[in-house]
Task: inverse folding
């Protein structure tokens, strides 16, 4: 079946603009995660959606970052007033409870 | 608090030599354990997982890992590496407390030398 899909695959924008990154998880997966990976670095947890529970937003680096998950499926990560330090690969993953995460290929965000 | 430690940020090894990538975790509850691999410019792929049962887990590409509860470790091993194994390897845990939140280690870059 289809895996986790992220769009766009690449995004180049000017400093100060808002961006929206989309994640389509595997159908039926109750958990959805967003991570950020800077060049040559590990995974930085951003936000975690689990079923109908309130999302765990503890990893969001500032109030410029927000995410929502509509209908328990598609998720959008929004970054407002982008800064150069926001440049990174943003990875989305989904899973069933306790099962391995399935990752998308990521969105490479470049802030000019 | 839940945490995952991968002490080796980089591991160089010659082709056909064995390799071990170390992972230690801390948690107050039982955990599920995973190893993922990331090839350049790609997302993460699952290598292997420990959910329950035998503590020696075999994964794809000839990798295996052993869960040691007393040492809270889940080291990844391969008896003979190939150039194509050059990648970033991440250890992760998921706590069995109902949240199933994942914590990833900082990764180990395996570089296989000819």
Result:
């Amino acid at each position: 079946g289809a895996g986790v899909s992220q769009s766009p695959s690449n995004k180049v924008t000017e400093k100060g603009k808002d961006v929206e990154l989309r994640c389509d998880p595997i159908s039926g997966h109750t958990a959805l995660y967003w991570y950020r990976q800077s060049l040559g670095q590990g995974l930085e947890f951003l936000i975690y959606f689990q079923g109908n529970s309130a999302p765990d937003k503890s990893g969001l680096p500032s109030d410029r970052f927000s995410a929502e998950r509509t209908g328990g499926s598609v998720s959008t990560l929004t970054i407002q007033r982008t800064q150069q330090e926001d440049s990174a690969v943003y990875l989305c993953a989904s899973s069933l409870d306790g099962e391995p995460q399935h990752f998308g290929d990521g969105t490479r965000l470049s802030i000019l | 608090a839940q945490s995952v430690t991968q002490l080796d940020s980089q591991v160089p090894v010659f082709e056909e030599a064995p390799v071990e990538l170390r992972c230690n975790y801390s948690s107050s509850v039982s955990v599920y354990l995973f190893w993922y691999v990331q090839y350049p410019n790609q997302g993460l792929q699952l290598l292997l997982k420990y959910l329950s049962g035998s503590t020696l887990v075999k994964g794809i590409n000839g990798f295996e890992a052993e869960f040691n509860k007393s040492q809270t470790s889940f080291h990844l091993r391969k008896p003979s590496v190939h150039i194509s194994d050059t990648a970033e390897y991440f250890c992760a845990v998921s706590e069995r407390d109902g949240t199933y939140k994942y914590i990833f280690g900082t990764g180990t870059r395996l570089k296989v030398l000819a």
In short: The longest strand of chain A covers residues 88-95.
